[in-house]
């Protein structure tokens, strides 16, 4: 069965380039996929702070839709969406009554057996085996892989390889020809949801991340989360003001980095959409 | 023919106030098989007991029912009285008329009727009783102590000083254990080695102690009083009789860069080595995994150097066998390494060390000769952070328990640091301070108040390196969760105390139970803290759970006293209320079919299958056999047995069925 | 006359028997209907003995031992619990009224709880009435067998 893809709001708005690059590499590696039709918001931070039922019902509907389409697996590139879908799936697994209620709420049958995958998992599973042969332009720089929080935590829900010092992105980046640096802020908070309300906090936290990456010799930050990208890229001016330092280190989505190594046109990967120019 | 006497006690008025004791006695006298029945004011008093004794003699009674207080109170009293009158004590049963009748019901016919029912129940039981003799088991008065840390040393010395032989087996080349690695000890700050080494020497010199180092238990068979232990004495590659311990070989060994276990990897040793200067025995061993001769086939420098010609490169492991009567497990504990903590750098930062490593830095015999210098560049740290509960009390890390010693040793470490680096700053991140113990709280207060150690209540979320500093990120929960960052020069993690690496394997070898963390399980958490569920095997020290030196020593002495108690007789007498498998004349031999269900049911490994042979020695059947030395009499096997071939003496199916029938057929 | 049920209690020596002793020591009153049979451990209880008790005329049965993890013999009560789970289904299937068997944990410190367990059980069995169905069947069998 083809892979279902759930874009979520960020990937159709502020992080369009993430979706573009995801599609580019899926096409390059001939991985068939369809978008989840009639998809809705995952609920993100708002729902689970306000109404727990709705917080579970929103991802449940997405799961139900994907299952209705006949997909066995669903790719969720946005880390926040991924986190929401995974935790709802786990809650339903553990609580059959809840599952029944949610099925009723969304008005669709819910098998809940679909496999929810993040970008890293899809790459490791379907792309890495064929990656070497397709590389045209090996990345020749030092990269700091930044996983952030939503992709790896909580450990008992997401079962990431090493919660505090994850490795999978580093492994992929190494295949692309880049040198992953050992640094300390791989999973530190970027400020995430405060990007609108408390930019001062975002500037400080994201600034710490940039400082640590640069001081460990990184020439690029590799990310897999639209929030991380927004804070580190879009808020660069605020960060520079807050830290009193200049940073020209670009922030690249992992899928863009793969595209670059494959020799795909930068425009097609959406690299031109970044605030901090990607010139490496 | 039953000749039963029934004795009804008034217990002053405790029973007689609600139960018509005279009527009970009257009714009892009418019961089948009851020859004599009487009520009396105080049956447990001397005259009361004499009444029973006289009646037994006069009426030649072969069974006694005393209707009085709970059997948990006076069963031994009345059984002794019977024994003194020549009646087998197990022919006496107690009907509980006080706790189960008079004290819980109002006065009335129904209450008296219940008393009568209970008496009838036990009369019927006694009819099915049979005389039992205490089980005797011969005892080999020699103890095996596994582990030569302070626990094993204390247990060995106590047992040896009581005049019994002790085999003390230590896995490492020297005894001393973790205590020998410690710098100073809380709460007195006296030097660990100064108080320990005299004990170590005493062990080596003690005429009753056979010390076997660099050795491990290979197997243990048998049961209480009668164990057979096989010890694997690893080849030390030296002739211990010839070796004088001069140490010349260790100076010539070219292989000098091996991380020293004794110094927790902060120093080095050679391939032929004496682990530390005060080692007992003070003779080297060759580490075969590191020695160039064993790995590459040449060198033999030590052999050429040795003035006593004591090097034996062709020496092989030896298996030694001992008969022992008791075993003390004192195998100690270990601490988690810094690599256990992803958030603290996965062990990649050299200057993030464990508490045990700090002990070596602070120890006068350590790699820095007692100066606090950080491992990466040897600089004296100006800011040092101690992190309590690193792993402990953290379900996410799989370690829910408190490691118990850390609060105290962190206070000690911080103090030692401040005493040595006066201008330095010491910070402690803690969850709670657990300083229960004599002079313990005062000790921690001293660290805070006199030595100005800054205690911050909060956990450390992350440690990372920046510009040669270790950035410690935490929160001060007493300041409303205010985030705190300290740029430290060195961080000491009080890593969780965990079971010794081979604890599980050893537990399986000796058949003791252990918990999910591989700490050995005591027989009862309150009342049998040094016993295990396997009779004759005792626990000392932190192999049971993390504990400090005073507790370990106390527990070791406790275990030793149990061993000495066991050795106080050449035979062990045990309660005969144990399981037995029936035996009958040929051709049946037994109704047991040897299915082995009881073997798996037994929590004490007391049941095995054995061959039953006919007179010619041919095996005719395979059936269960209960080892009377091990059985505790729980009866789990009885309920398991499908062919009703196993039963518990004193609680046989026949007795219980008789009781039930008697209770319910009062007409 | 009011129906006074006959209730047999199978208890372990170390927890519930001692707990029932404590009920006495604390002078807590409970109905007179119960008769206690002492076992070394609930693990010893062959549940066929329950049938035997019904057979002999019991209207209700209490089985009680140490709380899980408190067993004097480490694991006897776990065996009893597991055995009971299976046995309960079996006797339920063959038509025995499982409401007449109360399974409980009473520790040596729970004197009050023992009184409660007995009081509750007696109340329940009084409501259910005498177990005449079973007694009649067993009588007719006895007649045949003996």
Give an overview of the whole structure.
Chain A is an alpha/beta fold. Chain A has 13 helices and eight strands. Chain A has helices at residues 16-28, 44-50, 52-68, 79-94, 96-106, 119-134, 155-158, 168-175, 194-197, 199-215, 226-234, 236-243, 254-262; strands spanning 3-5, 33-35, 73-75, 115-117, 142-146, 179-180, 220-223, 251-253. A four-stranded parallel β-sheet of chain A has the order 2-1-3-4. In chain A, strands 6-5-7-8 form a four-stranded parallel β-sheet, sandwiched between helices. Chain A is globular. With 667 residues, chain B is of the alpha/beta class. Chain B is 28% helix and 25% strand. Chain B has a five-stranded parallel β-sheet with strand order 10-7-6-18-29. Chain B is elongated, with a radius of gyration of 32 Å. The mean pLDDT of chain B is 94. Chain C has 146 residues and is α/β, with parallel strands linked by helices. Chain C has a single domain, classed as Rossmann fold, CATH 3.40.50. Helix content of chain C is 48%, strand content 16%. In chain C, strands 2-1-3-4 form a four-stranded parallel β-sheet, with helices on both faces. In chain C, strand 3 (60-65), helix 3 and strand 4 form a beta-alpha-beta unit. The N and C termini of chain C lie far apart (32 Å). In chain C, 53% of the residues are buried. The chains are: A alpha/beta (280), B alpha/beta (667), C alpha/beta (146). Chains in contact: A-B, B-C.
What attributes does this structure have?
heterotrimer, A: 4-stranded parallel β-sheet, 13 helices, 50% helix, C: 146 residues, Rossmann fold, 5 helices
Kindly summarize this structure in a few lines.
The complex is a heterotrimer of chains A (280), B (667) and C (146). Chain B is 28% helix and 25% strand.
The strand count of chain B comes to 34
Oligomer: heterotrimer
Number of helices of chain B: 18
Radius of gyration of chain A: 18 Å
- Low-confidence segments of chain A: none
Q: Please state the average pLDDT score of chain A.
A: 92
Secondary structure topology:
The complex is a heterotrimer of chains A (280), B (667) and C (146).
Chain A: E1 3-5, H1 16-28, E2 33-35, H2 44-50, H3 52-68, E3 73-75, H4 79-94, H5 96-106, E4 115-117, H6 119-134, E5 142-146, H7 155-158, H8 168-175, E6 179-180, H9 194-197, H10 199-215, E7 220-223, H11 226-234, H12 236-243, E8 251-253, H13 254-262
Chain B: E1 4-9, H1 21-30, E2 34-40, H2 46-59, E3 63-68, H3 71-84, E4 92-96, H4 98-102, H5 109-128, E5 135-138, E6 142-146, H6 150-161, E7 165-169, E8 184-185, E9 190-191, H7 192-205, E10 209-212, E11 215-223, E12 226-233, H8 248-252, E13 258-259, E14 268-269, E15 272-273, E16 285-286, H9 292-296, H10 301-305, E17 318-324, E18 326-329, E19 333-335, E20 352-354, H11 355-362, E21 383-390, H12 406-420, E22 425-430, H13 440-449, E23 454-457, E24 460-466, E25 469-476, E26 482-488, E27 490-495, E28 497-499, H14 503-510, E29 537-539, H15 549-566, E30 571-574, E31 579-581, H16 597-601, E32 607-613, E33 619-626, H17 636-640, E34 646-648, H18 653-664
Parallel strand pairs in B: 1-2, 1-3, 3-4, 6-7, 6-18, 7-10, 18-29, 20-27, 21-22, 21-27, 22-23
Antiparallel strand pairs in B: 5-30, 8-9, 11-12, 12-17, 13-14, 15-16, 19-28, 24-25, 25-26, 31-34, 32-33
Helix pairs in contact in B: 1-5, 2-3, 5-18, 6-7, 6-15, 11-12, 12-13
Chain C: E1 7-12, H1 16-25, E2 34-39, H2 48-56, E3 60-65, H3 76-94, E4 101-105, H4 111-128, H5 132-145
Parallel strand pairs in C: 1-2, 1-3, 3-4
């Amino acid at each position: 069965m083809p892979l279902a893809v759930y874009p979520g709001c960020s990937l159709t708005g502020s992080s369009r380039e993430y979706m573009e690059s995801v599609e580019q590499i899926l096409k390059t590696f001939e991985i068939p996929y369809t978008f989840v039709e009639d998809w809705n918001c995952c609920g993100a931070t708002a729902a689970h702070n306000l109404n727990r039922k709705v917080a579970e019902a929103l991802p449940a509907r997405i799961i139900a839709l994907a299952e209705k389409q006949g997909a066995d697996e669903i790719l969720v590139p946005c880390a926040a969406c991924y986190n929401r879908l995974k935790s709802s799936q786990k809650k339903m697994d553990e609580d059959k009554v809840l599952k029944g209620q949610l099925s009723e709420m969304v008005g669709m049958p819910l098998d809940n057996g679909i496999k929810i995958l993040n970008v890293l998992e899809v790459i490791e599973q379907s792309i890495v085996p064929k990656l070497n042969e397709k590389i045209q332009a090996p990345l020749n720089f030092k990269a700091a892989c930044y996983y952030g929080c939503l992709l790896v935590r909580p450990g008992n829900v997401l079962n990431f390889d090493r919660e505090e010092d994850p490795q999978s992105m580093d492994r992929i980046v190494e295949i692309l020809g880049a040198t992953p640096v050992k640094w300390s802020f791989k999973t530190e908070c970027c400020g995430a949801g405060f990007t609108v309300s408390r930019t001062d906090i975002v500037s400080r936290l994201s600034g710490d991340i940039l400082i640590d990456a640069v001081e460990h010799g990184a020439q690029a930050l590799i990310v897999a989360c639209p929030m991380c990208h927004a804070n580190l890229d879009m808020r660069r001016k605020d960060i520079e003001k807050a830290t009193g330092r200049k940073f020209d280190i670009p922030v690249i989505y992992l899928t863009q980095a793969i595209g670059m190594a494959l020799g795909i046109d930068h425009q097609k990967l959406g690299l031109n959409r970044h605030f901090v120019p990607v010139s490496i | 023919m039953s000749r039963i006497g029934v004795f009804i006690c008034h217990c002053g008025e405790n029973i007689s106030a609600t139960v018509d004791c005279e009527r009970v006695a009257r009714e009892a006298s009418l019961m089948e098989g009851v020859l004599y029945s009487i009520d009396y004011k105080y049956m447990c008093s001397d005259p009361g007991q004499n009444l029973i004794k006289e009646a037994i003699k006069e009426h030649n009674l072969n069974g006694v029912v005393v209707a009085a207080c709970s059997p948990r109170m006076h069963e031994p009293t009345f059984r002794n009285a019977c024994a003194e009158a020549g009646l087998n004590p197990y022919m006496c049963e107690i009907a509980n008329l006080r706790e189960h009748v008079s004290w819980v019901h109002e006065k009335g016919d129904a209450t008296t009727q219940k008393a009568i029912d209970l008496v009838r129940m036990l009369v019927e039981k006694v009819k099915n009783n049979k005389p039992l003799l205490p089980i005797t088991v011969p005892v080999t008065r020699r103890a095996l102590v596994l582990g030569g840390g302070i626990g094993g040393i204390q247990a060995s010395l106590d047992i040896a000083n009581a005049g019994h032989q002790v085999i003390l087996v230590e896995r490492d080349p020297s005894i001393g254990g973790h205590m020998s690695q410690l710098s100073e000890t809380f709460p007195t700050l006296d030097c660990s080695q100064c108080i320990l080494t005299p004990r170590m020497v005493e062990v080596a010199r003690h005429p009753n102690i056979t010390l076997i180092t660099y050795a491990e238990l290979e197997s243990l068979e048998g049961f209480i009083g009668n164990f057979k232990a096989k010890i694997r004495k690893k080849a030390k590659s030296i002739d211990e009789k010839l070796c004088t311990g001069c140490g010349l070989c260790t100076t010539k060994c070219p292989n000098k860069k091996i991380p020293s276990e004794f110094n927790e990897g902060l120093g080095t040793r050679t391939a032929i080595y004496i682990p530390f200067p005060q080692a007992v025995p003070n003779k080297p061993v060759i580490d075969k995994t590191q020695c160039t001769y064993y790995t590459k086939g040449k060198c033999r420098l030590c052999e050429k150097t040795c003035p006593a010609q004591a090097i034996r490169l062709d020496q092989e492991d030896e298996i030694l066998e001992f008969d022992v009567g008791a075993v003390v497990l004192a195998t100690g504990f270990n601490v988690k390494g810094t690599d256990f903590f992803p958030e603290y750098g996965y062990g990649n930062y050299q200057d993030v060390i464990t508490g045990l490593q700090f002990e070596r830095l602070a120890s006068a015999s350590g790699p820095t000769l007692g100066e606090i210098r950080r491992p990466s560049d040897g600089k004296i740290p100006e800011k040092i952070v101690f992190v309590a509960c690193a792993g402990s009390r953290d379900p996410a890390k799989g370690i829910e328990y408190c490691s118990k010693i850390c609060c105290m040793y962190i206070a000690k470490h911080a103090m030692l640091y401040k005493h040595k680096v006066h201008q330095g700053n010491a910070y402690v991140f803690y969850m709670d301070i657990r300083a229960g113990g004599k002079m313990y709280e005062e000790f921690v207060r001293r660290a805070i108040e006199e030595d100005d150690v800054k205690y911050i209540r909060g956990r450390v979320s992350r440690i990372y390196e920046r510009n040669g500093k270790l950035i410690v990120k935490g929160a001060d929960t007493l300041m409303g969760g205010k985030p705190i960052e300290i740029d430290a020069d060195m961080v000491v993690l009080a890593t969780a105390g965990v079971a010794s690496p081979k604890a599980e394997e050893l537990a399986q070898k000796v058949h003791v139970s252990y918990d999910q963390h591989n700490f050995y399980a005591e027989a009862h958490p309150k009342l049998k803290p040094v016993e295990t569920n396997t009779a004759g095997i005792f626990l000392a020290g932190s192999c049971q759970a993390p504990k400090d030196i005073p507790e370990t020593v106390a527990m070791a002495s406790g275990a030793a006293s149990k061993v000495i108690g066991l050795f106080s007789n050449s035979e062990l007498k045990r309660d005969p209320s144990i399981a037995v498998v029936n035996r009958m004349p040929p051709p049946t031999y037994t109704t047991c079919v040897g299915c082995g269900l009881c073997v798996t049911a037994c929590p004490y490994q007391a049941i095995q299958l054995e061959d039953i042979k006919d007179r010619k020695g041919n095996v005719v059947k395979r059936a269960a056999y209960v080892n009377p030395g091990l059985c505790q009499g729980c009866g789990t096997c009885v309920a398991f047995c499908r062919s009703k071939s196993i039963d518990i003496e004193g609680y046989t199916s026949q007795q219980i069925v008789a009781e039930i029938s008697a209770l319910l057929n009062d007409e | 006359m009011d129906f006074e049920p006959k209730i047999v209690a199978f208890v372990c020596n170390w927890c519930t028997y001692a707990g029932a002793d404590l009920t006495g020591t604390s002078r807590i009153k409970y109905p007179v209907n119960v008769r206690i049979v002492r076992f070394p451990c609930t693990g010893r209880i062959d549940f066929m003995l329950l049938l035997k008790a019904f057979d002999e005329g019991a209207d209700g049965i209490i089985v009680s031992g140490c709380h899980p993890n408190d067993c004097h013999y480490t694991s006897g009560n776990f065996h009893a619990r597991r055995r009971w789970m299976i046995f309960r289904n079996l006797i339920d299937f063959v038509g025995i009224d499982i409401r007449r068997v109360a399974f409980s944990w009473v520790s040596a410190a729970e004197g009050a709880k023992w009184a409660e367990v007995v009081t509750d059980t007696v109340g329940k069995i009084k409501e259910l009435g005498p177990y005449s169905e079973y007694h009649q069947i067993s009588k007719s069998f006895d007649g045949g067998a003996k």
